[in-house]
Specification:
With 283 residues, this protein is mostly helical. Helix content is 72%, strand content 0%. It is built from 10 helices and no strands. Helix 4 runs antiparallel to helix 5, helix 4 packs parallel to helix 8 and helix 8 crosses helix 9 (253-267). It is elongated, with a radius of gyration of 37 Å. It starts with a helix and ends with a helix. The relative contact order is 0.08.
């Protein structure tokens, strides 16, 4: 029994040796086939010390280096970089929409109009925001077209570098904001920031122009909202006086005045007056 066990162990050992040798041979063949090209023209050299200059070292180790080509040499942005830029633009788009366009003034005026009518949920917020977005697109269309023609198309064609394209795209936006910014606001932020400003668009820094534009937009929107509020305030006062004269002091005046406000707004074609004149304030 012991001899049979020893004989079987010896045979298993011999078989294991042959299997190991065969596996090593196959592994060596596989490793050799992983290299690109033949031994004499491989792009990666295993032997150290075969290069004498940095250029020769780079040539000998082409497979061990990584090259990133931006714009592909002709103004075309690579796919991954384009995706990164698009995602970044989507992330900051709401901030740019609020700070650099007519969206803020339109939204505030629409809010004052709804409050003056005393219709708390009509039109709903979704309708007001959608209307503000499309009116913003309508007002900013010339600026968007100018950015596309002066910055985006030349950049895609390779005629402008990235820095030049950004400067060209900023100019139409700066021109739009400058036309809507009041002079005192621009001077105030230039003084706070310590900038020397001569009164020309080219001299005012963007860091001072943007907050000055936003403050001017808020002031203009509140002035327009006050003008819209006045006629409806008169209706509230008339209705309140009539109710008090009739002894109906416990009846809320707004409940009676709201139908008269809506009637006045409809007869005067209020939405057309508000929206058309609001758009004209940017022209």
């Amino acid at each position: 029994m012991n001899k049979r066990v020893l004989r079987m162990c010896a045979m298993a050992l011999v078989l294991g040796i042959f299997v190991f040798m065969g596996t090593m041979a196959v592994h060596a063949t596989t490793m050799d086939s992983n290299f690109a090209g033949q031994t004499e023209d491989r792009t990666n050299i295993n032997e150290p010390g075969t290069s004498e200059t940095p250029d020769e070292l780079a040539d000998l180790n082409i497979a061990n280096t990584m090259t990133i080509t931006y714009n592909d040499g002709n103004g075309t942005v690579a796919g991954p970089i384009r995706i990164l830029l698009v995602l970044t633009a989507i992330a900051i788009a709401p901030t740019l929409l609020i700070c650099l366009t007519s969206y803020t003034r339109i939204l505030i005026v629409m809010h004052f109009t709804r409050q003056a009518l005393n219709t708390q949920t009509a039109p709903p917020n979704q309708v007001i925001i959608g209307l503000a977005l499309f009116l913003t697109y309508f007002i900013m269309s010339p600026t968007i077209t100018e950015i596309n023609e002066q910055a985006l198309i030349p950049f895609e064609a390779g005629e402008l570098s990235q820095e030049e394209a950004l400067e060209a795209a900023a100019e139409p936006i700066r021109d739009f904001m400058y036309k809507q910014t009041q002079l005192k606001d621009a001077k105030m932020f230039c003084e706070i920031g310590g900038y020397e400003w001569t009164g020309e668009l080219e001299d005012i820094p963007t860091s001072a122009l943007i907050p000055a534009f936003m403050v001017s937009e808020l002031r203009t929107a509140f002035i327009i909202g006050f003008v819209i509020y006045v006629p409806f305030l008169v209706i509230d006062m008339v209705v309140s006086s009539a109710l008090m004269s009739m002894g109906m002091m416990m009846l809320p005046p707004t409940t009676i005045s709201m139908p008269f406000k809506i009637l006045l707004f409809v007869l005067a074609d209020g939405w057309n007056l508000v929206i058309v004149n609001l758009v004209k304030t940017f022209m």
